[in-house]
Amino acid sequence: MIKLKSDIHIVKKGRLYHVVESRNRLMRFKPWLGDGFSFLYDFIMNSSIFPKKFAGDIQKHYYTLTQELAGIHCRQILELGAGSGSAVNFLGIDNLYTGTDISPGLLKQAAKRFLEAGFPNPEFYVVSADDLPFESGVFDVCLCILSLNFIGSVEKVFQEVSRVLLPKGVFVCSVPVPERNRLHTTIRGVLYSEAELEKICQKYGFKFERISCENGVLLYFKAIKQS
Ligand SMILES: C[S@@+](CC[C@H](N)C(=O)[O-])C[C@H]1O[C@@H](n2cnc3c(N)ncnc32)[C@H](O)[C@@H]1O
Question: Looking at residue 89, which CATH number applies to its domain?
């Protein structure tokens, strides 16, 4: 099991780990898509969000991420906002995967997909990306795919990612940015421009590198932890 901060109390229910708060209550969140509708997530992404809102191509999305992560093997991977487990489409199955999301319904789907794909002992945590329960310096790579705009405090996310990554660790993101939204579609959450994201990366000790890809409203980038 991945190392947790010493003051964290965690319980496993089914395939998911939950943080226990005071008075023995499980930490709960309000997911964007109510948990009962999680089964619709992949359909909505494929048929509506990607082609209409993002003006993008989902196959190109998976191809770009597959190429970017092709050299990553046997590493400790953390994913923020893992959703229903789309990372099985672009991550090598020899990696040690930890998925996080605020939606237990989506994470249950992710767990099923990762186990069926053959990942060795993947772990899934119902936690918010801006307050991670993990020990510092335990992950080689962190992924945040199409989720950064949903998470309340992006600065807090970078701070947490910087904390849990090992030196020279890499944060790979795919996120809608306003300057690529040529169709002016309404996209949920808070959108940051590439210039703003680069500035935040630098503030938290990362080197920003854009990943070359034109795919609708999406920017792909990696942030490399400098020390
Ligand atoms: C558009 S989905 C992307 C899911 C997946 N990465 C994918 O590419 O299909 C956004 C995800 O972010 C999650 N999310 C929203 N707020 C979050 C937070 N504060 N911490 C972690 N995940 C969050 C949602 O529950 C949802 O699964």
Answer: 3.40.50.150
